[in-house]
Amino acid sequence: MSVDPRLSINQATIKYADLATALRVTVEAGVPAIGLWREPVADVGLATASRMLTDSGLRFTTHCRGGFFTLPEGPARRASIDDNRVAIDEAATLAAAGAAGSTAILVLVAGGLPEGSRDLVGARERVRDAIGELAPHAAAAGVTLAIEPLHPMYATDRCVVSTLGQALDIAADFEPAVVGVTVDTFHIFWDPDVEASIARAGREGRIATYQVCDWKTPLPADVLLGRHYPGDGVIDLGALTRAVSETGYDRDIEVEIFNEQVWATDPLVAVQRTAAAFGGAVSPHLSAPLESRS
Amino acid sequence: MSVDPRLSINQATIKYADLATALRVTVEAGVPAIGLWREPVADVGLATASRMLTDSGLRFTTHCRGGFFTLPEGPARRASIDDNRVAIDEAATLAAAGAAGSTAILVLVAGGLPEGSRDLVGARERVRDAIGELAPHAAAAGVTLAIEPLHPMYATDRCVVSTLGQALDIAADFEPAVVGVTVDTFHIFWDPDVEASIARAGREGRIATYQVCDWKTPLPADVLLGRHYPGDGVIDLGALTRAVSETGYDRDIEVEIFNEQVWATDPLVAVQRTAAAFGGAVSPHLSAPLESRS
Lengths: 294, 294
Hints:
Chains A, B: GO terms for molecular function: isomerase activity. 2 copies of one chain form a homodimer. Chain A is of the alpha/beta class and 294 residues long. The first copy, chain A, is built from 11 helices and 10 strands. Chain A has a single domain, classed as TIM Barrel. In chain A, 43% of the residues lie in helices and 16% in strands. Chain A starts with 6 loop residues before the first strand and ends in a 13-residue tail after the last helix.
């Protein structure tokens, strides 16, 4: 079975692989692109990571992740903003090191309520403020900040941005090339407005990256780890993928799975299974590439 | 400490108490109202339950619960619709048996995806259809059907109605006296539109019942059981209670807690703790009753 030419493996899917292994198994499985995480890049250093990425011949799709913007003003907030500037620079460097078609995207997870706070409204405002501070740096670096709405079950401890519509409302203050959104099926499929919000995201030029994985119940004890190979759960990936395709989105599509069983799998096998699952559940719903349309 | 005169104990908070015990401890704690569940009522029979309720002197606030409307047409769907007609009649009977100020409300939980289905859109349409079938019976019985949006983490296995706005869109096809919504803090607090949706619910005359409990993380292994006494978590109950009060809602307010530790508590103690928690976290944010306003 051939691998979809738009598939990208998000490194979180093979969390326990170091960067060298992640790049090697992705190439070996015939997958053409990869999204990286900051920690394994930092383990070898950015310069080395960039050389390894270039040598792999893979496209680079996203850098995961920045954000955590909900703290009130003070040294911890300043440290977070500064660290996000570093992450922006990393994303630019890695995108330049990747094969042609790489994209300079930094995925942003907003952060949860600060300890002792119940003020979601205020936390959400501080997310907007932080993005405002970072936007000039991102623009100068040619990096798109991709606000990721996370499922509402993470609203208080991880990400106060809970819907695609809310992410788009924040992004609306900025240029689409600088601030976009991450459309991840796991986080938004439940939303009664999901198809309308995807269409809006496309219309407003905000879909920085499209990520797929699946949902099923019961959720595991750690609800962060309840993600599955595409097609193994109950998300209507066909409908969502068609909705994204219809906006004209024609770039790579990441699969990002947080799942202890997937992580316990040999990483090459996990990537091969991901490619097969993607081919079955996502590829049939993608528009043909522009150049092949009649 | 005096008990808030608008507090109602939802029987799920003391799940392992039979009806006699639930009524007794509610009275003993000085709480003036109770919301009942169908199963403990059925255990003694409706006629006996009604007499027991009358004898308790408590107001009756809601009957929990009807719904489960997502099956496609067939015998199982027919059985569910028929059972909801029975539940409507039970709600009317119990409301008539309760003290003055009782309300004939049947809480509806929509149901999840049918086995093997990924079609949330279709499931949601079937919920609307079922309510359309039941509305004439509810109107004749003088019962309000209260559609309850459940937290999106339950969207696929329990309730395809996930936001207050979505519940209001369904209710909009019907008379407000016949179809309203359940506003439960646990399920909707995360919604960026929550205050606007509460205001809309009030404007459209749809707030059938207001229920409070709290949320905190990490969630327990069974995510159904992660509810807490008001004030023990991170929900801004003050803001939500003020938003509900500002709509003019002046009826009883239920506390419904699904929590193994609360269930393991002596039921009288659990009710007393609920009353104290309510007094601390909710009562200060309630408008004064109309008759005491200048």
